[in-house]
Amino acid sequence: MKATRRPHGFRFNVSTGYAACRAASKRWSSISQRPGSDHVHFPGAVNSKFTSEMIFQRPSTHPTIPTYRVMDSDGNVVDNTRDPQSAPDSEILNWYRNMLTVSVMDRIMYDAQRQGRISFYMVSAGEEGIAVGSASALTSDDVVFAQYRETGVFAQRGFTLKDFMSQLFANKNDAGRGRNMPVHYGSAKLNIHTISSTLATQIPQASGAAYALKMQALQNPNIPQRVVACYFGEGAASEGDFHAALNIAATRGCPVIFICRNNGFAISTPTLEQYRGDGIASRGIGYGIDTIRVDGNDIFAVREATLAARNMALQDGGRPILIEAMSYRVSHHSTSDDSFAYRARVEVEEWKRRDNPISRLRKWMEKKGLWNEQMESEARTEIRKQVLQELSAAQKEKKPPLRALFEDVYEEITPEAAAQMKELKRMIDTYPDEYDVSGFEGGVKSLE
Ligand SMILES: Cc1ncc(C[n+]2csc(CCOP(=O)(O)OP(=O)(O)O)c2C)c(N)n1
Ligand SMILES: [Mg+2]
């Protein structure tokens, strides 16, 4: 029988792979204590000075890590001695359009869930700048691992409205063939791994993928260098997976940019109850990772930090970088949540009024003469029309064949899965009034 049980995966080149691994790891060197030295030479802390003062390090006496920003909430450039523009006007207009698309689509799909058209949805309100700004700094070859509030990353990388709608309606054009709940997008074409609901699992996977890229570059130095970008919320950073992932990436020198969206909440748990340290950024430093905190409502700051992080991640044979992007989750956590049960309505209203990544870039563009009220209303109308068109087209499409339920786990359908398929067909044939499968491509025949 053909080997049917091997899942698809990364193939390690045994002959050159191990040699590359050895070359990648630093040479072992002996650590000894020189007589009279004022520094500790324990293997676990080689640069620590001896002291006769007994000092417990107090987090509160360390300065809080600053937040990098390029423009303020009125769209004014803070340091006007330099131009924040690291891209042509046309590209900036494209980021703006992508943020707007996410925002308009979010509103429509939130309502679509309320109308019972789709089962679930999550919006990115307030966090569009982190997604679009960081994605604008990556190359299309870079590999992305996302959580679920990075719709803007997909939009910026070229996921179309049809792609979004096909996944949301789980129709036959969905690359995941309808097997995931809504917003769990993925795209092999765009090098974005499929989103998984299980929090933080993407973080060690990202470190592993970055290690694979490092090996690939060692084996074939002529291919363009790539990094992994890994997104997660500050809540996900409470999982053990986060810590394991940062440590392995630091010790093995993996070219991965960890992008934490700190939006103040993990569903109903505010950050004040999630941790006592200085956000997530302080944890990067703890793992020996170069780290920056940025204003997530400032698309220029996010983009600049990610561009720099990408360069740094490829230095010295590869290393991880952590970006903590600060924002506020303006929306409810998901369509299954009512956030006014645990936070004040005025707090949300205040954030909506005070600051937002979309209105901030809009203000900057208006000051530059790139945008105006009329362009805004035309763009919104057009995007809305396109979203509604794709929504109704996707809703009318057939669902994937029932057979797809059993495919793609193993290279070939296993005898057990074949038996289940047969049983499913028997049930549908026996109770046709209970199971209307005409909406699925090929109907019951796909199970033959
Ligand atoms: C392992 C695991 N535990 C719990 C959950 C339930 N859960 C889903 S989202 C979420 C909050 C995550 O917060 P954060 O990472 O800050 O992301 P945000 O929703 O704020 O964007 C929780 C607890 C889950 N999906 N997986
Ligand atoms: Mg959060």
UniProtKB/TrEMBL annotation:
Its EC number is 1.2.4.4. It is an enzyme of class 1 (oxidoreductase). GO terms for molecular function: branched-chain 2-oxo acid dehydrogenase activity; metal ion binding. GO terms for biological process: branched-chain amino acid catabolic process. Transmembrane segments: none annotated. Its cofactor is thiamine diphosphate. Residues 96-401 form the Dehydrogenase E1 component domain. One of its GO terms (cellular component) is mitochondrial matrix. Keywords: Metal-binding, Mitochondrion, Oxidoreductase, Potassium, Thiamine pyrophosphate, Transit peptide. The branched-chain alpha-keto dehydrogenase complex catalyzes the overall conversion of alpha-keto acids to acyl-CoA and CO(2). It contains multiple copies of three enzymatic components: branched-chain alpha-keto acid decarboxylase (E1), lipoamide acyltransferase (E2) and lipoamide dehydrogenase (E3). It holds the Pfam family E1_dh. The keyword DNA-binding does not apply. It catalyses: N(6)-[(R)-lipoyl]-L-lysyl-[protein] + 3-methyl-2-oxobutanoate + H(+) = N(6)-[(R)-S(8)-2-methylpropanoyldihydrolipoyl]-L-lysyl-[protein] + CO2. InterPro entries: Alpha-ketoacid_DH_E1_comp (IPR050771), DH_E1 (IPR001017), THDP-binding (IPR029061). This is 2-oxoisovalerate dehydrogenase subunit alpha. It is found in: Mitochondrion matrix. The keyword Mitochondrion applies. Belongs to the BCKDHA family.
